[in-house]
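Researcher: Can you fold this with FO1 in place?
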Amino acid sequence: MTLRDANIAVLAGGVGAARFLRGLRLVVPPRMIAAIVNTGDDTELHGLSISPDLDTITYTLAGAIDPERGWGLAGETWQTMDALGRFGPVRPEHSEAGATWFNLGDRDMATHLYRTARLAEGARLTDVTAEISRAWQLETRLLPMTDQRFRTMITLADSGDDVSFQDYFVRLRHAVPVAAVRFEHGGAELTAEAASAIEHADAVVIAPSNPLVSIGPIRALGRVDELLAARRDSVVAVSPIVGGSALKGPADRMLAELGLEPSVVGVAELYRPVAAALVVDPADAELADRVEAAGVRCVIEPSIMSTPERSRALAARCIDAAL
Ligand code: FO1
């Protein structure tokens, strides 16, 4: 087998995974990659079905992402959001109508309109996602982890209230302490497509995404840990924690708040059952012995994907470590 005919499966969250996949597509042919994507962040607003991680990956791989924000489309306009602002003063207290705390750009809205209409016709999210990918001319396969409803819920430490992931992440700007992460899924199952991708890939990479709220939901589906553990030697994870801090988002604080070590060692402990190797940045080289003591081979490679070349080199190292 050469890199040109290696099938790679990637467990993916949002921005970090999208940048990793962009690099991986410079290493193996895009059509040989299947990304199994978290849908625990999905939400409904304005009656629309919104799948942020799927869209972040789609727009990134299409070269259409807003590079500063890391989500949404470059050159976006916000006229619909601005126009919704008119209704703020008249909205009853407990109504979500016309919400403007979650920003949907005018062109991004088209993706949610299409997805919502197709789901209402009875299509599976897997099929709708394939259609959206084709419309953006991606050759890489994006596979939602499940076709069933799955919602990540966050228990806030101060109030004990349970809020949806987007409430925590966007409305509360992930600036509040977390007591627990809970998954509402009523027995949702990994799709057959995602299971087959994990089973038949030559290598599996766990992208540098939040291990608790991006990769955690995927692993919470029945069979995922079992499928990964059965082929653990060819599963490599990339730490999203570099020098004790999250590359993006609240992963470092969340690990600490939930009693885990906010370092590559904490990440290694979480992934030990399913991954044989963990890729860590040179900033964490002094923790390599502790990663290995946790039962995971430590591979050192620059992990901050500041340029496409850095993403490519990181992806190449992962594949090398897994094959
Ligand atoms: N993130 C924000 O911080 N603020 C937003 O208003 C926001 C809107 C949004 C709309 C569509 C979309 O696909 C993503 C959006 N995101 C926004 C990003 C998203 O909340 C997070 O990046 C992920 O859920 C975490 O992976």
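Model: Folded with FO1 in place. The two ends are 10 Å apart (CA to CA).
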